[in-house]
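Customer ticket, subject: "Can you confirm the structure for TetR family transcriptional regulator?"

Message body: Hello, I'm evaluating your service for our small team and ran a test protein. I'd like someone to confirm that this is what the system normally returns, since I don't have a reference to compare against.
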Amino acid sequence: MPTAPRTTAAHTPARPSLTERRKAETQLEIARTAAALFAERGPGVTADEIARTAGVALRTFYRYFRTKEDAVAPLLAVGVRQWIDDLADTTARPDAPPTRAALEQAARRALTPTDGRAEEALRWTRGLLRAMPGDPALRAVWHRVHHDSEEELQLVLARLTGADPLDVRLAAAAANTAMRVAVEEWAAGDARADGPHGPAELVARGMRALTAGLPGLDGRHN
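Agent reply: Thanks for trying us out. I re-ran your input and got the following:
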């Protein structure tokens, strides 16, 4: 979902400068445009078309992105990492559920569209995933974003559970895979995003299956 990541109670980073915020906004706007074009027309979209539709010069496009496929990364990154920020926020509360339950709840929320923009983002993601078989570079961006997300999740789970490093890596890999597979499986079909076969239901099922044998998720919250 194209919403800004939330900061956790444990660490609040310095507010970005105005220039940095404008740069991030421009990147995200180009990313939305690229995602919409890839979803609509597939891998034949060009960088020039993305730039022109986004209302920026081609030179500006290449100042931000190396390739046309890289242009979708900011949108995907916000979507796949939002639930990690949500997880960190949820488990920081006094009434926080156990880590295992918090993981599933955060994943459900991340993949449940709550407004028109969230529904649109899921439609774009479906279109992107359907375009990927014809564009290996686009698929590489998808996997790179999930790899980065998994590394961030490891840090959060290590703090939450105090588990052995191997258990933390396995838990992060399982949870991240559940998210990725749920979206991919949903995108391959025609089910509604908010229905019984939507990504939120699929991720809950996958999360339970893949984390069932990981006792480290029953550890403490720090």
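A couple of notes from the result: The chain is about 65% helix and 0% strand. The CA atoms of residues 33 and 54 lie 6 Å apart. Feel free to reply with more questions.
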